[in-house]
Amino acid sequence: MLSSVYARYISLIALLCFSIVSKADTLLLSNANADHTTALKPFFKALKDQKLISLNQFHLSRPNDTFWLKATLKTSGNLDQNHFCLSFNHLTFVDLYLFENGKLKLHHKAGAFRKKNEITRGDDRFHFNLVFLPGATYQVILKIKHTKRYPPNYDFLLQSTNTYLSYNRTLELTNFWLQGAIAVLLIYSGLSWFISKYKPFIWVMLFIVSIGLYCFSLEPAFIDFFFPMHPETGWLLVLVFLHVGIVSFYLLMIEFLEMKSKAPQLYHYGHLLIKVVLVFSVLCVTHNYLTSNYFLTNQINLAFSLIHLSYIGIATVTLWRKLDASQRFLIYGILVFVTGVMVLVASAVIFGEQSLVYAPIISKVTILLITILFLTGLNQKQTELLEKKTRISTLMDELNHRVKNNLQMLYSLSALQLPLMQNEKGKQVLNDMRGRIKAMMLVNEHLSIDQQEQAISVRLLAQEIKQHIQYIYDPKEQIPIDIRISEELSFPASIALPFGLILTELFTNTFKHAFSGDHPNPSIQVEIHLRAGYFRFTYKDNGNRTENINISPSMGLSLIQDLIRQLKGNLAVNSTTGYTYLFTFPNFC
Predict the structure, then answer these.
(1) Three-state DSSP state, 206
(2) Helix (H), strand (E), coil (C) string for 253-297
(3) Which of 326, 385, 401, 438 has the most Cβ atoms closer than 10 angstroms to its Cβ?
(4) Cα separations (Å) of 145 from 92, 125, 152, 466?
(5) Dist CA 182 CA 337 (whole Å)
């Protein structure tokens, strides 16, 4: 089987090589045109039904069929340059047979899907190195198979090696500078996020990386570096990078433009569109992997781009009047994005697969313009947020200061009033009030110390409340108090204040009622644990009293019940030996 196929190829090559061509179909290489770039398309003949025909008459039955092209060239006797390059774009498999005066001189292989070890050293995926001697006749025979299903281009160019290298050097230098500028913007975005922790910077970074990888994946260096033996796999990732870039663009637009509050319906459709893009990306990769029909996938993506443009256009018109100056910079970036997309779509429609030659540079320039506008808006927004945060911080400091002063004034007034109070019951009321005010003061002081975390050490708070209440009712510290609370445990302000008031009431109630007579061995125990998302707070004393928390009309015990309801918690009381109060309430953090 293999021998018959090989014999067929030999006969086809012989037919192409020895067929008669006119002088008008022959390219003459001389010193006059050696430095110019010459398109071989006018000189090509195609093989069909064992006959050579012009390209104008040649049509493939299927885009992925194998076909043969032939061009004849002669070199002048005084040709000074010998080294030339034959280059092309995007074709997946190309075999070059070069005949010199009727004898096979070389057979080289190249192409987008060609394995690296099959490409001759000195060539690359999209060019062959050739050496032409003066005064010789050459037949250039090409066997081509384009499996990506695009209509194949015949854009083979012949130019001197110096001209080719000079052009590629200019192209590489342009790409290098563009990539360098993109890298600088990426680093700047990363540093901005690290300093500010402002989430839109993350989406900018993801956008830069993904679109940058999309541009890089269109270049042969990407395949040669990452997938030299599996180039098809590298090409599968091209659309993945593009789609991730689109998703990051939507995430940035949704969050920075505050769509959730300003346009809830657009916010919903935006997230739905993100999910659709991710699913669509998986389908595109699967379709390309199974069928290699990149052309159909590209056509579907071009049609899908109309949905992107429609959503972006509607969002821009709807939100424009609701945006501040910083957010409008993002709109300017969106307009640049839309312009870039329209240019790429138009070039894809007009030039087909040939447009992929220009896509990396167009995309990189678009990235730079978009990112600069995005970062300008983000930095302006960040400055506004920092100024607002500073104003809020100043107001909070002033508020805390005023609250602290007012509490201190109330505490001082009650302390001054205490010696003047003749009634013992009145003195008890004032002492109870002083304890409650002190609890609120302690919580406020802890919040002032650490406003960023807004978390209060439970052990430290309990210790301070215990010291203050004991100073009022038990200055000689005859009743030992055992506080079993982990040093790592902390409460947010929403829990710390009710907890502080509850503990104050419990201490006050114990000192006033539990040990009214002589008690041989008085003790108080406080214990708190966090278990399965719930705080378990146990307060226990071994005193003797007849008062029952469930029926008592006292203000303190009624306050405890109100506070535990505020914490959405439960209270259980056990009076078998002294009194044990078991509180459970959820962790709201």
Answers:
(1) helix
(2) HHHHCCHHHHCHHHHHHHHHHHHHHHHHHHHHHHHHHHHCCHHHH
(3) 438
(4) 7, 14, 9, 87
(5) 16
Query: By mean pLDDT, which of 261-275, 281-295, 568-582 is the weakest?
Result: 568-582
Least confident of 117-121, 309-313, 450-454: 450-454
For 74-96, what is each residue's pLDDT tens digit?
999 888 888 999 999 889 999 99
Q: Are 251 and 271 in contact (CB under 8 A)?
A: no
Q: In which residue are the tokens 């006292």 written?
A: 554
Which amino acid, 545? R
Mention every residue, 6+ apart, whose C-beta is less than 8 A from residue 210.
Answer: 241, 242, 244, 245, 248
Answer whether 508's CB lies under 8 Å from 556's CB: yes
Query: Above 60 in pLDDT, residue 548?
Result: no
| Neighbouring residues of 134: CB distance < 8 A, sequence distance ≥ 6 | 75, 76, 77, 78, 79, 82
d(CA 226, CA 257): 38
The token pair at 275 is 């999910």
Look at residues 193, 190, 231, 232 and name the one whose alpha carbon lies nearest to residue 209: 190
Segment 345-352 shows an average pLDDT of 68
Whole-angstrom distance, CA of residue 556 vs CA of residue 428: 12
Question: pLDDT value at position 550?
Answer: 45
Quote the tokens at residue 282: 């998986």
> How distant, in Å, are the alpha carbons of 27, 68, 110, 157 from that of 16?
16, 9, 20, 20
* Angle CA 18–19–23, to nearest 5: 110
Q: Please identify which residue in the block is written with the tokens 């004991």.
A: 470
Per the confidence metrics, is the pTM higher than 0.90?
no
CA distances to 84, 140, 454 from 137, rounded to whole Å, are 15, 10, 86
Separation between Cα atoms, residue 170 and residue 149, nearest integer Å: 31
Instruction: Grade residue 298 by pLDDT with cuts at 50, 70 and 90.
Output: confident
> Tokens at residue 345, please?
């779509």
Q: Residues 6 or more apart from 72 whose CB is under 8 A from it? A: 21, 25, 26, 27, 43, 137, 138, 139, 140
How many Cα atoms occupy the beta-carbon half-sphere of 53 within 13 Å? 12
d(CA 174, CA 169) in angstroms, rounded, equals: 9
DSSP states of 37-74: -EE-GGG-EEEETTEEEEGGG---SSTTSEEEEEEEEE
For residues 136 and 281, the answer to whether their CB atoms sit within 8 Å is no
Backbone torsions φ then ψ of 58, nearest 5 degrees: -95, 130
Q: 483 to each of 128, 312, 459, 472, 486, how far by Cα in Å?
A: 84, 61, 8, 19, 9
Q: CA-CA distance, 439 to 189, in Å (whole number)?
A: 46
Direct distance between the N- and C-terminal alpha carbons of the chain, in angstroms, rounded to an integer: 74
Q: What is the largest CA-CA distance in the chain?
A: 132
* Closest by Cα among 134, 124, 52 to 101: 134
